[in-house]
Amino acid sequence: MRALIAALFCLFACAAVPAAAQSMPSGGDEPASADRPGLFADIIDAIGSGSRMLIRKIQPGEERDRVEDPRFNSQESPRDSLMTFIEAMNLVQRGYTDIGYTRALASLPQGATRQQADVLYEILLRLGPVSPAELPGSDQAAASGDTRFEYFPRGTDHAWVWQAADPPSNATVAVLRSGEGTWLISERTLDGAPLFLESIADLPPQFSSEDNGEYFIMVFSPLIERTGLFGWIAFLAVFAIGIAAGLLFKRAMAWTARKADRIDQTFLGATLRGFGNAGGLVVFTFFFTIAIGFLALGPVLQALHYEIPRFLMVVAIAFLIVSLIDVFVAFLRERVSHEKDHYDQMVITMIRRILRVLVISIVLIFVLQNILGMNVGALLVGFGFLALALSLAAQDSVKNLFGAVSVFINRPFVIGDWICFKGEMGDHIGVIEDIELQATKLTDLAGNLVTLPNMLFIDREVQNLSARGYIRRRVDVAIPYRAHADEIDRALQAMMDVFDDEEVVEDSGLEGREEKAHVSFSGFDDSWLTITGYHYYFMGGEGEIQRDTDRGWFSYLSHCSLVNRKLVQLFGERDIEFAFPTQTVEIVPQKGEPITVRSTQSVEAD
């Protein structure tokens, strides 16, 4: 049976031993805390006890047989009497009832009962681990000449008991000398024990660090020995039914939500999805509550009968609240979508994230404080010191946070915008995918996901391409040098005719606007004359910008192709030449002199 229990322990030992080592008392050498651990700490202590048992099984060497050869088995001193009683009652918990009670009653006054021994043992467990070092031995008792040793309240530091509970003022645990070399626990201790135990019953038992697995066996042995095969089969069966029922409920709600989406009932669909997640967990919790009732958990784990369902219900409520947040956000997005306010969409996304984090934080604090019994205040203080220690390393994180705030206040861009950002490694051109508290994610033209720290947007230039209402393009055309200006006039008119072409005007969105195209003879270059034209490409109607329409960079490039093609076509029809790179080599031979090479070159400007 111990091997089976040890195997059960192996499932938990690796993760829990460090925590158990922190929570286990130090054998009485340190004052006990007023904040006594709860159920979670009891389980960790039990796992820690199992770890020591497993280690002793693995380590070589002989171990003292606590049944046949106990460490304490006499009443020669207060130390011997109390430790004999405690070790004997540990044997009772392990199942050695007769021999355990026989040894335990030997440290009590004559006529004491097993029930009185049980009550006193429960008191000693709740007062904390009893260390032999804090109890006087036979030499110390003989040297002092005392006839009475008071373990509680004056024998050790038990001030925390009055902070954590309300014991009677006359509560005591004392050992009296009864004849030469014999010390017994006093009758007054046994008489006041029931009332004393009742006042401190809510305090969890604390076993000694010398415990070698007794606590682990005491906690988990009922789960193995008393549950039985039928109990485990019933538990697994109902547990599996609970999982199936929860999943079925969730999928049914999801199917209904899809039906609602098909008839444009968006809010109803979102509500049903959220209710499906929370309701599925509630259904599982119902079946799990039934299933866990088939397990014999013992006195320490008994609270799990309602603590686990309580935890699951808290999580289900959290799911429901999160789903209601999603429904509220969907409603806001529907309202904002009609106004095409992209900044409001971004703010709604951030509000959704903040509310989710807030709900999860509240649920986490509730679980830690009320279910796991942790001191959240002390935990937060510890995090405060840790945050102070890491403040220098977190400077960039703080800068990124202020960068995010700057983005929300100044609105240089929103999610979905095309931007051009001048980074340290070059320009980044792409679309904004997400704006988080620490970084902004951008997908560039090559499809790469680029993560940019928000602090970079505080002091660097950002071009928002999606916020422009139009693009004004410059077109330079080079024509050859001529002796007459007629060809310049014909080139100017041809370029203007292209800009005024019906198809070009319609594609550019220029119709009905005051802005007009313009052409000019802009200058003389080395080997050509330059004709410059300016024409517009509008992203939408009056007041519309690129993010509000389907037009963008690629549609603009298509428009440029249309204009360029018509320029080439019209110049060809009107016999207007384009300047192109030329080179003339003239060789002039002269008698008695070397050959002289002269060259001229012209370069196309288009």
From TrEMBL:
<feature type="transmembrane region" description="Helical">
    <location>
        <begin position="311"/>
        <end position="332"/>
    </location>
</feature>
<keyword id="KW-0472">Membrane</keyword>
<comment type="subunit">
    <text>Homoheptamer.</text>
</comment>
<keyword id="KW-1003">Cell membrane</keyword>
<keyword id="KW-0406">Ion transport</keyword>
<dbReference type="Pfam" id="PF00924">
    <property type="entry name" value="MS_channel_2nd"/>
</dbReference>
<feature type="domain" description="Mechanosensitive ion channel transmembrane helices 2/3">
    <location>
        <begin position="354"/>
        <end position="395"/>
    </location>
</feature>
<feature type="signal peptide">
    <location>
        <begin position="1"/>
        <end position="21"/>
    </location>
</feature>
<feature type="transmembrane region" description="Helical">
    <location>
        <begin position="281"/>
        <end position="305"/>
    </location>
</feature>
<dbReference type="InterPro" id="IPR010920">
    <property type="entry name" value="LSM_dom_sf"/>
</dbReference>
<feature type="transmembrane region" description="Helical">
    <location>
        <begin position="229"/>
        <end position="249"/>
    </location>
</feature>
<dbReference type="InterPro" id="IPR049142">
    <property type="entry name" value="MS_channel_1st"/>
</dbReference>
<dbReference type="InterPro" id="IPR006685">
    <property type="entry name" value="MscS_channel_2nd"/>
</dbReference>
<keyword id="KW-0407">Ion channel</keyword>
<protein>
    <recommendedName>
        <fullName>Small-conductance mechanosensitive channel</fullName>
    </recommendedName>
</protein>
<keyword id="KW-0997">Cell inner membrane</keyword>
<feature type="domain" description="Mechanosensitive ion channel MscS">
    <location>
        <begin position="396"/>
        <end position="466"/>
    </location>
</feature>
<keyword id="KW-1133">Transmembrane helix</keyword>
<dbReference type="InterPro" id="IPR023408">
    <property type="entry name" value="MscS_beta-dom_sf"/>
</dbReference>
<dbReference type="InterPro" id="IPR045275">
    <property type="entry name" value="MscS_archaea/bacteria_type"/>
</dbReference>
<feature type="compositionally biased region" description="Basic and acidic residues">
    <location>
        <begin position="59"/>
        <end position="71"/>
    </location>
</feature>
<dbReference type="InterPro" id="IPR011014">
    <property type="entry name" value="MscS_channel_TM-2"/>
</dbReference>
<dbReference type="Pfam" id="PF21088">
    <property type="entry name" value="MS_channel_1st"/>
</dbReference>
<keyword id="KW-0813">Transport</keyword>
<feature type="region of interest" description="Disordered">
    <location>
        <begin position="58"/>
        <end position="79"/>
    </location>
</feature>
<keyword id="KW-0732">Signal</keyword>
<keyword id="KW-0812">Transmembrane</keyword>
<comment type="function">
    <text>Mechanosensitive channel that participates in the regulation of osmotic pressure changes within the cell, opening in response to stretch forces in the membrane lipid bilayer, without the need for other proteins. Contributes to normal resistance to hypoosmotic shock. Forms an ion channel of 1.0 nanosiemens conductance with a slight preference for anions.</text>
</comment>
<comment type="similarity">
    <text>Belongs to the MscS (TC 1.A.23) family.</text>
</comment>
<feature type="transmembrane region" description="Helical">
    <location>
        <begin position="353"/>
        <end position="372"/>
    </location>
</feature>
<dbReference type="InterPro" id="IPR011066">
    <property type="entry name" value="MscS_channel_C_sf"/>
</dbReference>
